[in-house]
Amino acid sequence: MAGGCKTAYGLDVSDGRFVLARCGRRGAPQIVLAAAADSDEARRALQAAAAETSRGAAALAVAAPAALTAVRRLRAPFASVRKAAKVWPALLDVDLPFPVESAACFYGAPRVVNGGTATLAAALRRSDLETFLETCRAAGVDPTHCDAEALALWSQHIVEAPPARVDGVRALVWLGADHVVVARGRGAEFMAAHVLRSSPLADPPAFAALWAGRARQILAAHLAEMSATELDLWWTGPGAEDEARLAELRRALPADVACRHETHRQPASFLARALARRAADGSGVNFRSGPDAHPAVVRAESRARRRAYFGVVAAAVLVLALNFAEA
After folding, report:
1. pLDDT confidence of 291, banded at 50, 70, 90?
2. What pTM does this model have?
């Protein structure tokens, strides 16, 4: 990952609770904290993580609010990665509810498919990013990484439940404390995400009414888009710990949408694990980069550049010395 850190923390803050996961470059994320945000245990754990972060020895990742983050699939009509990179901002600008110039943007690894070039893009208004970071600091958290929630959830879903079929149709429902994310795709490929600004944890009656209509709309459209008749539906998030709640949500799904249901293990810490892993292996989004980069990350990257520079100089001196000796 950028900055040469060997350790990354992922922090999920919701409903007055902190869930903190820790991950190295290799190995699975481990939960180090699940406690009330105002507890002594939470304060000590965050202080320890902050100390590592300030030294540049670790990263601390959080998820930008899903309702404020735009995730789009882009396609350029030519099979040139270099040309496509030049038009991504223009293509994204057409599909955003705000100017691309006012946003922190991320473009994923491009893929040449059927004569064109495709990528995934994520965007967050810089004003929303700054407001979110201020909220984090007020809670005693100064993250180095700000990931895209929907993409983090989907990637962790693929890691923990690899698709059995390349073309298998699947969806992931993350039941958060104050919102729900429905991510959908085919095989390992992410297709789209939908955010419901309600939760069965916050307001069960209101969410039940919302879920009954939106779930059918999202899942039926997904099946139609994929030309499929059934899908694998996975559940996770804090709200997925209650089996009775899951049973109720499953019963609310329309009978004409055929689903095979599965639930991820340790659903309450799912997002924290995703954030830690992605920050550790460098596969995640980081809206906090460029002019918004954390000072510790800037210092770490500066040290890495100096080491690389001195390495080049040392190699050049060695070559000159060998040439001189040979002469």
Report:
1. confident
2. 0.90
